[in-house]
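Q: Could you fold this chain for me?
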Amino acid sequence: MWAEKYRPRSIFQMLGNEENRALIVKWLKNWKKGSKPLLIVGPPGTGKTTAVRALSNDFNVYVMELNASDVRTREKLEAALGHISPVNLYGQRVIVFLDEVDGMYSKGDAGGISFLEEWIPKANVPVIMASNTMKDFMKNLEKMSEVIKWKRVPGREMFMWLKNIALKENVNVNDDVIKNIIYESEGDIRYAINQLQAAQENIVFKDVKYTAEEAVKGAMYARSFQEAFTYIANWQDDPETKLKITAATLFYNQPIDIDQRARWLSEADIILGRITRTQEWRLLRYFNMFITSAIYNVRGNFNQYLIPFTVVQESDRREYYRKLLEELKKSLHFDNGFIIAYVIPLYEMLVKAGKIKDLVLQASLQEKGRTKT
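A: Sure. Below is the predicted structure, expressed as C-alpha cells.
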C-alpha cells in the first residue's frame, strides 16, 4: 500500500503541524520522571501515529505501541505497563504510546481509565497518548497532560505530496483529479494517498456483488491493486466473515511474505474492532484496503475453513508457549484459540526461516530436529 510505502520515517519529513512536531521533540528531549505525558488530539489520518513512530528512527528509542481501545481494562493495562522497564534489552530508551484513548471507555471497562490516572504520574517512561476527539471521560487525563491539538494537513501541502508520489510511481494523474481527492479527503492524508493509488487504474466500480470465492480469487489474481480492491469492496459478506476467510486463505497458501501479510491482516482486525465499538462505518474503506493488501497477488487456492495446524507442546516447552501466547496477545488482536492454532505455528515457521529472532525457540526446535533424526 502506498500509504505505508510513503509513510514518513522521520518526524522532520512530515506534512503540516510544524509547531506541534517541534513541541513533541522538545518534550521528549526535556522529559524526566514526573513530567506530564503528551495527549495528541486531532482528526484521523493526519499523522498523529506517524509522528510518534518516527521518534524511533530520529532518536533511537523503542516505541511500545498499544491500541488503548483493545487493552482498555485495568487487568490488561496493568499486565502491559505494570512492570515496564525504562530501557529495553538493546539499550534503547522506551516510550509508551497509547493510541485511540477515546475508544477506551465503556461501562464495564472504566477501570482502564482509572488505572491510567493512577499509573501515569508514577511512570518511569515517557508516555504519549493519541485521540481523535476529546471525550468527557478523558477530562482527568486532559488535566494531567500536555495537550497538543493536531490539525488537518493543508491542501497545498497535500497537493505537492501527492504530485511527488505520482511522479515516483510514474503515474500520470490529472491535477484536477488530485484536487478532487484532496477535497474528498478533508485533510486525511492517509485516505488521500489510498485514493491516489486507486486512481492509477481507470477502472469503473460496477454495482455488482461477489461471493467469497469470487472476491478472494479475483483479488488473488487481479492485474492491479485497484482491481483487487474492487473485488474486496464488493464482496457481499460481512466484515468479520471477510477477515476469517482471508485469514484462512492466507494461512492455507503460506506465501513467502506471509509475515508482512499477517501484519496487514492484524491491522484490518484492529480497524474492525473499532468499527464494532464506535459504529464508525467510514473506516470500512481502510478495512477493505488492508484485506486487499493481505490477499492481493498471493496466486494460490481459495480456502474458507481454518484447519488448525498441530502445535506440539512437549512438557519442557509448555511454559515457554504460555509466555509466548501472552506476548503475542499484546501485539495481535485475535483470540487465544486462533493464536494457538494458527499464529504460533506461523511464528515457528518464521523463526525457522530466520525472519524472527527467538534464540530460545530456535534452540528448542533444533534440539527437537536432532531427536527425530
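A (continued): The mean pLDDT is 81.
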